[in-house]
User: Fold this.
Amino acid sequence: MPESDTVILDIDDEIATITIDRPDKLNALNVETLEALQTAIAEAEEADVRALVLTGAGEEAFIAGADISYMKDLGTPEAQAYAELGHDIARSLETFPAPSIAAVNGYAFGGGCELALACDLRVAAENAVFGQTEIDLGIVPGWGGTQRLPRLVNDEVARRLILFGDRIDATDAHEYGMVGEVVAHDQLDSRIDDLTADLAAQPKFAVAAAKEAINQSHETGLEAGLEYEQRVFSGLFGTHDQREGMDAFVNKRDPEFE
Ligand code: COA
Assistant:
């Protein structure tokens, strides 16, 4: 990828890890960083990886949000462009053709929380703090928080978080269903390694198909979603992994997926 001072893309063993590297600003996302992040996600997709991990550099922050110093003097057209850029990135995490995982290692506020919400899975370190804090700045979430948070947690929890801008710790975020698991800070990397190793051993096309079908459940009505599932399910028949998975079962051996 083109050199970026603030975004690191590392691809190892078919796993992409993107680190926002702006620790002196708690990994807040200015335009340059967002554009580099957009490029890094596209490159990870091009590399056909089996999982994508998003995390933040340093000990304190995942991503402390959109860059407030940049936003403070924007007018509506510029704010619209900034929102579109953030939305585009969130959507590319959501529709990434392999599972995306937010490794939340500290503050995840505003746009940082929203990018975590756009990932398939969220693993939080014990020191993580979450918040849709935009209301404190006189605005509302602008990178999908008003839409994705109520789909993930119960409606009242979403309303309270967005209306009051509460900052909640990892335990509460887990209790509300915002994160799948909480681990000790020094265990975060190894837990992510375990999860990505498990994903890398799964049948790749079935994992991608499962993700797409689950995404559809948020986008269409039940009937259309059920039809979509049938197409995805039947489309996997005849693939190497379907033949291999079922042959392995009937012959009582471990499958070897592509
Ligand atoms: N945008 C721009 N800069 C940010 C930022 C953001 N979202 N979050 C933190 N920073 C910068 C601070 O301005 C400071 O820069 P400076 O050293 O040049 O002054 C640096 O990061 C460290 O932050 P600081 O506030 O001094 O650290 P802290 O430990 O006292 O507080 C937070 C940490 C996360 C609680 C606090 O920075 C914060 O509330 N940030 C804003 C979070 C937010 O509202 N995000 C949503 C944006 S839509």
Q: What stands out?
A: The longest helix spans residues 76-94. The mean pLDDT is 97. Residues 25-26, 28, 64-69, 107, 109-111, 133-134 surround coenzyme A (CB under 6 Å). The first strand starts at residue 7 and ends at 12.
